[in-house]
């Protein structure tokens, strides 16, 4: 997203006049989540100020978790929730990912399918490194590019205790937790986004 991100974070880059962060928080708030969390590292001051202002307008409290160094998709979640013992489920989206999927349907499927984690998967687009069995269980996250059925969209819902499956290293991927959870017999499921619009704006080839 250069050169826009030389002076501003990706999360505040506008798309059709609306900052990506505002789009993401608005969609999460619309499904009735009682509290929102935002991870901030680069340009943290700008992200923090914007997140709080957006939260006030949406009428939803926003907690900003600052990272002194990038902690990855897993380490960042663990850091943000380290003092939130009462949180049981977590719905995640990335500010630079635009996915036109019904989040209420994701929440409903999570309960109906008795999932420990539910990942929204994009068919036929992106790197296609994810495999999913007929039973809905993720079978592989690390297939050779182009050989899998799906791409992980970055939108997922999981039970917070799955963070215990992360490695001890501060910077790590949430996929590492999901892989270990699957080995432990936990239900890490995939849900196809079908033909819904999806764009990873932080990766030009997507």
Give a nutshell description of this structure:
This protein has 206 residues and is α+β, with helices and mostly antiparallel strands. It contains five helices and twelve strands.
Walk me through this protein's architecture:
This protein is an alpha+beta fold and 206 residues long. It has 5 helices and 12 strands. The strands form 5 sheets. It has a 4-stranded mixed beta sheet. Strands 1-2 form a two-stranded antiparallel ribbon. A hairpin with a 2-residue loop joins strand 1 and strand 2. Helix 1 runs parallel beside helix 2.
Overall morphology: globular
Structural class: alpha+beta
Number of helices: 5
Helical amount among residues, as a percent range? 25-40%
Strand percent estimate: 15-25%
- Would you tell me the overall average pLDDT? 91
Which stretches of 5+ consecutive residues score pLDDT under 50?
none
How many distinct beta strands?
Answer: 12
Q: First CA to last CA: what distance?
A: 12 Å
């Amino acid at each position: 997203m250069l050169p826009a991100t030389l002076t501003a974070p990706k999360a505040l880059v506008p798309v059709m006049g609306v900052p990506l962060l505002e789009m993401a928080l608005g969609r999460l708030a619309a499904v009735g989540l009682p509290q929102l969390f935002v991870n901030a590292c680069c340009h943290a001051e700008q992200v923090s100020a914007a997140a709080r202002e957006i939260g006030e307008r949406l009428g939803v409290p926003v907690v900003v978790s600052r990272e002194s160094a990038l902690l990855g998709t897993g380490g960042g979640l663990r850091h943000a929730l380290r003092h939130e013992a009462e949180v049981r489920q977590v719905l995640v989206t990335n500010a630079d990912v635009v996915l036109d999927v019904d989040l209420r349907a994701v929440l409903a499927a999570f309960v109906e399918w008795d999932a420990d984690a539910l990942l929204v998967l994009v068919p036929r687009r992106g790197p296609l490194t994810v495999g999913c069995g007929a039973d809905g269980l993720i079978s592989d996250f690390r297939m050779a590019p182009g050989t899998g059925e799906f791409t992980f969209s970055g939108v997922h819902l999981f039970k917070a205790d799955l963070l215990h499956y992360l490695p001890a290293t501060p910077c790590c991927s949430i996929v590492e937790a999901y892989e270990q959870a699957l080995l432990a017999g936990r239900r890490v499921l995939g849900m196809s986004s079908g033909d819904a619009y999806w764009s990873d704006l932080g990766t030009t080839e997507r």
